[in-house]
Structure formats: structure tokens, C-alpha cells
Amino acid sequence: MCSSIVTSNQKQSAKLETFFKDNCIAMDNKILSVFQVTNLLSENREVENFAKTPFETYRGTDYYNLLNLSDLISRYTVSYMDLSCRISLFREGDNLIFSAKDTQKLDFYLNTRQYDAQALNEAVAYSKTCPFDSMTLLGSNADTPFVTILSWHQYSSGDRVYYLIEFDKNYFFPTSGVNHGEFFAVTDETTGNVCLNQSSSEITDTKLLNDIKEIESPELNNVNLDNKLFSKKSVPIHNMVYVYHNPNLYSFLSYVLIMVLLLLLWLLLLVLGFYLSRYLAKRLYRPVNNVFGILGDVYHQEHDDDMTFLSDSVADLVTNNKRLQELAEKNKIILKHNFIKDLVTGHVAREQVVFSAREYNLEYLSNRSQCIVCEYDNMAAQGAVMDYQKIQTLKNIFMSNAEEHLRVDVSCELVNMDRNRFVIITKAVDVQTLNKTLMGLVNEAEEQYNISLLMAVGKVVTNMADLDDSYMSALNLLEYKFAVGDKRIIRDEDLAELGNASYYYPVEIEKNLIYNVLEGNMEKCEDILTHIFTVNFIELSLDKANIKDFKFALTATIKRILKQTNKTAEEIFGKDVIIYLELNAAATVDEINKSIRDIITEIARYIQENSKNKKRVITENIVQYIDENYNQDISLRDVAEHFCLSEGHIGRLLKNDLNTSFKQRLNERRIEVAKTLLLGNENLSVGDVATKVGCNSAMTFIRMFKKHTGISPGEYKKSQN
Fold this sequence. Notes:
alpha+beta, 5-stranded mixed beta sheet, 29 helices, flat
């Protein structure tokens, strides 16, 4: 009997250990998903301007733009996450905080959310001792309904921007139908703060709470069966620990005792039910009066007849219930769209796909499905005659009608991705049916809404979890939209046609050419152009028709390059140049060769010069930072974190531009200042000078000084006097 009980407990413990490990990964993924959103926000120009501009300088329109940060947060959070997490943004020293809903005073916000201002200040102070762009668990009341994380971003020049990330406990912690006494917790190793997935008043074991606070260097494999306590560190937040407690590893005798207690309880309820039914039979009208009293307090209505009043009240309850159902359905649609967005962009764990597909009635896509990326091809032109709000309204109306149009022929889902694109996820059907349906949508958009659509059909996948592969293949097809002429629907077969063209210009050669132009590698571009011109005009001797197609292909390549540089032909060439007309005017082989080389070389040169200027400015800023902070104990890592660059990249910039290293430049600056101090004040000792120039000790300073000047500081002082 004893050995069977132990075996049962060991199995249950192993099961709980696996359950805990899986949910730790899930909670880490939620944190990382939100961290991606804060990274995107940090890269946004509006947030960067906010960090770099003092608050007192905002006036008029600029102050209006500052308030628009709430709208920016709303756009990012709606695209990447559900409504169970809230992201707020603030800057140290300002008394304003921006969230997806509104802008508030920071102290008022903390008060309404029941946060301790001192705990926030301590978390901000702690952040300054952490590595760049990190996160920490914010200390809070253990009974708060949120798990709160503080994240931050430091720009090269400007204040830190802090993100307050609040997870709803019901969303953050797993829901497993917990038994009495079972709970999840998050604890901070640094501060000892504990956040539970249930009220701390329900946890009566004070020693257990103290054990949670004192967890250090937890190991998942070291399971304490006596305390039933599992613990594991969070991957994204180094000082945060997940804890799981389950005291209910029952033995056989425990189950017998529970069954006996349940039987006694059932008998007690049976007896109470008998006497209660007799009492209600005698006193039926009094509870009805109580119901009328309660409804009267709620609805404040007067009726001559009690039953009419009861009927009207029930009708109101039914109406309100319908409204609640409609609201719940609307929220479910939003969550469904967010799930599909995350699915096609690869932000959903594979094990979650099956569960979510069942929840949102998407199981019909689980076998064979594909993504179709649709791009609004004339939204820039529309913007010249309509404002942003009107364009958005037009696209919303079109999307609503498009979904009804498509579902007549194919089972599909439509999701808006960004301002210029939406995605159709459809169950795979035969090519003829899909082409007919898509062309109908293209024609409807053109005729009824004056919208020009371009569609790229991604590859078919056999598993719904692989829809991100189909989405990426469709995006890849859109890169070649200039090379397929006037086609509105692009497939893999269209690229195959490009590969079978009568002229020589393979897709891989074109990609290689685009890459080297964007890198500013003019010599490599010359080699590639020489190769393709030799094959086409010497080996193949193209005729006029094929030369015309070849010119069009080169024009498409140049348009792709300009699009990736985010520059127009006028910005690069200094005049209004129409690339195709430039190439088409070239009649002979030499003229074509010269024309395309001039265009490609000019773009590569422009990119190369801009890259050099940018690197030169960064190098100058690095040198200025060293010169201003020589008296601090700074390292190459400190400089890298300040400028958001790698240590190796900073080392290469100093070597290439100044033929020096970080250590050499720092020591030269320290010696330069030390010489001035040695000659300017006779009362200063060598140790005092060492401290003022940032050296840890006088001996270190003397060795450094002698290495660079050949003499000691004392000898230098005597020689100058």
C-alpha cells in the first residue's frame, strides 16, 4: 500500500512539474510578445522625438502631437495583442503618462490603479543599474488584479522612456481549474515583492509566503515534495521568478476521507432541501415581494399591476442581456482578428494554434490553406484628393463588402494589416475558381470604389500553423510587381515566366545587383552589369523586341531599388527623371550600356556618400562622449549602450575613421587633461590628478602616463618647470 501511494505521488508530481514548465514558457512568450511592441514603439519617430525634446518646449501644435502618443500606443497594441494587457508610456521627470485610452497625470494614474509611487520610483532607480533596454517586475500590492512590469529604452541623446506593462492576472496566469490552496505567483529576487493569482488573504500559510520571497537561484529539477513548491526563473526578466504551489498530492486515505465527507454533506443538503421546500410552499408570496422590491430599486418604475411591472422588468433584463451578448461578440471578433494577424506574422506558438482555431471557428483552415496579400496600389494618389479619415472610411466599406463577395465562392477570412495592405486567408481551392473570385474583387474595387488592387497569392500550406510561410511567400511575390507588367494577380508561375524570358536576367542575378546597390558597392555593381550585358548583347545577340523587354526588366529593378531606399528619382538625380524613357531613348548597345551604368552608379554613389556621412557623424559623437566623460570609469560597453551599437561596431568606426582604439583615445584624453592639471596647480598630488582624470589608482595613472609620454608625471612636472 505505501509503495503504491508514493508511486502515485511521484507520478502526480512529475505531471505538475511538466504543467508548470509549459506554463512558464507560455508566460515568457506573453512577456516577449509585449516586449516586441515596446521595441516597435521605441523605434517610432514620434516616441523618439518625445524622448529627445524637453517638455517645456512643447507649445501649440507640438503639444497636440504630444497628446497623440495615446493614439500611437492604441494602434500598436490593437495590432499585436488582445485587450487583456495595457501598455502605458511615460518619461522620467514628467508628470504625464500616455496609454491606449487617454493621457493622465502620472500621480493621479498611480492612485487610480492602486500603485505605490515609492515602488515605481524604486523600480526606475533600479533600472539605471541594469543593462540597456531591460525589464523588471514592479513592486505592487499582492492583492492587485495586475502583474505589472516596467520596461525602458534609452536613446542616444534624450531622456529614458519607460513603459508600464500591466497584465490582467486572469490572462497572464494559466487557468487550470485549480484546487483549494493551489496558486501561481511571480516574485522579484531583488525587492522581494510577490504577486499572486489569487488574493493573499486566501493564503493563510505565512511561512509559505516567506519561502516564496526568499527563493534564490531556483532550479526546476529540484522539486520539494514536502512543500509542493516549484520555481523557475523568467527568461526575459532576469530577476523575476515564477512559483507554483500545489499542496493537494493526495494519498489513497485522503481520497477516502474526502468521499466520506462528501457523502455526509450530500445527506445534510438532502435534509435541508426537504425542510426548505416545505417552508417555501407555505411562504411563496413573500419572496415574490422581495423580487419586486429589488427590481423597483433598480428600475424606479411605477405600475398599477405587479405582474405588468414584473413583465416589463424581465423585458428590460432580456434587452440588456442581448446588448451584453452583442458586446461580447464584438470583442470576440477583435480578438479573432488579432489572433489571425499574429498567426500570419509568426507570433503564435504552434501548440496554441489548434486551441485558438477551435475557439474562433477557424478549423476549416487547418488542412490546406493559403494567404493572399492585397495591396492598395493607388492610395498615394487618393491621398491627394481625400484626407486620411475619408480614405480609412472608404477602405472599411470596401473591406466589409469584399468579405461578403468572396465568401460566395470560397471560405475565407479578411484581416486589415496596415494602411496599404490587407490579407485574405482562404481554404485552398482550384486555381481557376480562385482566379475568377479574385478578379471579380479586383474589378469591383476599381469600378465601385476607384481603388486599384494588386494581389500576391502565397503558397498552399498543409498545416494552419505554417500560414506565416504562405504570408512571407506572398510578400516576396510583391517585390516583383514592377516586373510582371499590368497583372493584378501575381503567382509563382509569373516569376517562372521571368526566369524563362528570351533575355538573360535571372532572379538571383537581379537580387544580387539590388543588394550591392543598396550596400553602395559600385565595383561589384559594375561586374554584375558587365556580365549581363556580355551575355545578352554578345552571346545571345538580342533582337529589338527582346531588347525592349530587357529594358523594361531593368526599369523594374531600378524602381525596386528606389522603393527600398525610400527615395524618389528626383531626390537622387536632382531632376524629374523618368527611368524607362531614359533607357528607351538609348538606341545602340553602347548607349543602353552607358545609360543603365550611369543610373545604377549614381544611385550606389548616393547611398555610399550618405552612409559615409552618417558614419562620420556617429564617430564624432563617440569622440565627444569620450572627451566629456574621461573623468568617469567608463568602458567600451558603456559607450556601446549609450549609442545603441555593438562594441565591435564602435571599435571599427574608431579604427577606420581615426586609426585609433577606444582605450587609446580615452587614455590620450586623460593624459591631455592631466598635463594641464600637473602644471596648473602645484598643490595637487599625483593621486589627486589620477582621481580627477578617472583612473582607479595612482599606480595605474603613472603606468599609463609613462607608457604614452616616456616619463613619469613627476618628471614631466619638473621638466616643464
